[in-house]
Structures are given as structure tokens and as C-alpha cells.
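<instruction>
Derive C-alpha cells from the sequence

<record> Sequence and C-alpha cells follow
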Amino acid sequence: MTSLLGKKKFGYGVISHQHIKQCAVAVCEVFGRRPYDLAQMLETCEVETRLGEYLDKSPYRLGVSVMQIDKIAFDHIQQKYQTSEIAERLKAAFGVDMEQVTYRELAINPLLAMVFARFQYWQVTESIPASMVERASYWKEHYNTDAGEGTEQDYIQAVSKGYSTALAQEL
């Protein structure tokens, strides 16, 4: 999708693919950067919203933000982490008070969306896999779940056609 000026059009407070990458890198630097965390975050963003290019036609109904966080996950993560050491790290790194974040803020703040997506994955005890195909299964089991419409094949196709792999390899 392009604007009248010929530039890509983004939603969710995203200004460019590099902006998405900067948010993902910042979040992974503060909240753990195991070998494949950044790839998983960028690939999740790719499959959920084409790195911010796909504009959600039903905001707040099924999920919000560039990462498509649903309300149940948001409430669970906020309650689980609001008084923890993780909340203190969030405040120190980004000046964000976990208790004060509202669900609607995620819709226009890609950094907050990445934080909540990172926390969604943080709850999983098994490490993020090395291969993209295995990360597709990991995403489906731990992020999109049975309730989501996405499939592992959707993930593989989106990531294979998209920009996330190139963004992750630029580091």
C-alpha cells in the first residue's frame, strides 16, 4: 500500500520497517536477547500485520497493535508482571509504568506492542527455535494458539515473502 507521495503507508504508529526493527531490538536488548528472539519478534510482526502495512479493519475486536495482542493476553500479562522486577526494568528502560498502560495505547505504540508480545513469548519455558519452520510452530502454539485463525503455513508464507528476515540479518 502506498500513500499519494509514493511511500509505503503504515498503521499502528509505525513510521517505517526500520522503526519496527528498532523497537524489536530495544525490547530484546532489555528483556533478553537469546539467539532467535529478534527473529521471532520480527517474524511475528510480519505475519500479524506485514510489519505494520496491513491495517486492521476491526481494531479492538480480536487484537490490537502491530503485534495483534488480544485483550485477554494483555490483561494477563499486565496482571502477572505489573509488580515484578520486569516492570521495574520496563520503567527504567522506557519510562513506562506497567500498571498505567492501557490496552488502547498498544494500537498506536509499536514499542509497547513489542513489549507485550515479548512478554507473551517470555512465559514459554522452551527456547525459541533456530529454524523459521520451527518458529512457525512455536508461534502457532504459544502466540496465535488454537483460537487464532493463522496457520503455520500462513507464517511460513508471510515470512518467506516479507522483509522480516532481511531486517533480522542486518544486525
About this structure: The mean pLDDT is 90. Residues 82 and 94 are 15 Å apart (CA to CA). DSSP finds nine helices and no strands in the chain. Residues 17-30 form the longest helix (14 residues).
